[in-house]
Amino acid sequence: MTDTHSPLTRYLIDLIQQEGPISVATYMDLALSHPAHGYYITRDPFGRAGDFTTSPEISQMFGELLGLWCVDMWDKLGRPDPFVLAELGPGRGTLMADALRAAAIVPDFIKAARVAFVEMSSILREAQKKNVPSASWYNTFSELPAGPLLLIANEFFDALPIRQFQRTELGWCERRIGLAPPQSDLPFQFGLTQDAISPELLPAPVRNARLGSIIEICPLAETIVSQLARRLQTNPGAALIIDYGHLESAPGDTLQAMKNHKYVDVLDMPGEADVTAHVDFANLREKAEGCAPCEPVQQGCFLKALGIEARAAKLRQSATPAQALEIDTSLARLTEQEAMGKLFKVMALTSPNVSTPAGFAE
After folding, report:
1. Mean pLDDT, the chain, integer
2. Domain at 55-161+217-299+344-350, CATH from 3.40.50.150, 3.40.50.10320, 3.10.290.10, 3.40.50.300
């Protein structure tokens, strides 16, 4: 009988047959980052020809405003020279290219910046090299050069592997992925471990959620934010985290997959669809011990506070009618409540005793 499964699906089936049901985190990590068949390793997923579009690909205004935010933050940090200007998961490098173009109004900033990308995908690194040839590349946050730091993470944390737990009569049990019956169209299905885990593993506000509730945690996100916070304690710097998610820890299954700009079954096409989950900003803020986290704000409010409406008006002055319509459409998509303006949140972390970053309340 011919095996019609993709190489990654076959790998996962073999893994489960050998080791038993796997965690959601293991499934997500392999689906996205398997060294030969992972989603981000094998393609450029961005834009109309890909599976989803991020804010930098929607409009140049997004990256330009973040570039100016970095210039202002650099000034508040005392204009360190040199400093590391880092981006986690930089996509095609579009955001950084736009940011550097806008920041060029302050030549000393450009002269002092050492651009560093944290990126594992060789395909995306090639695109980044074309857009930001001056960058250096690293595989993890911990590999970044020492010294003063300005860091941007746009839609990075949502793609980090999560663990899911469900409250049962036995307590909190981990959701795992095993093999479905042979007659099923999908080779995988969700199940639960038999042994309950300690509630201390979960964020305090959700430990007493009602029976049947699902809770998600992202250990890698917690680790990165903890490392970042420790670095900001000993080196002047700031970080900007932008992603979709919730302001308070809450129950809910937010695991989702997207292909061709449409949602698909999470278990249907491992390695062929983007798999993400909403970011728990309250939990990240709690893990940022020792630095100065700003209360997260909605993306629409943040961009308006930075002047995106004025920037759009400036671009319209030299635009054709078709271009003006595209500018207005992009502005609405980035800022309106029913689009990305409310679902996406922005959180800043800074070294202690640094002035409040632009876009956040004093």
Report:
1. 94
2. 3.40.50.150
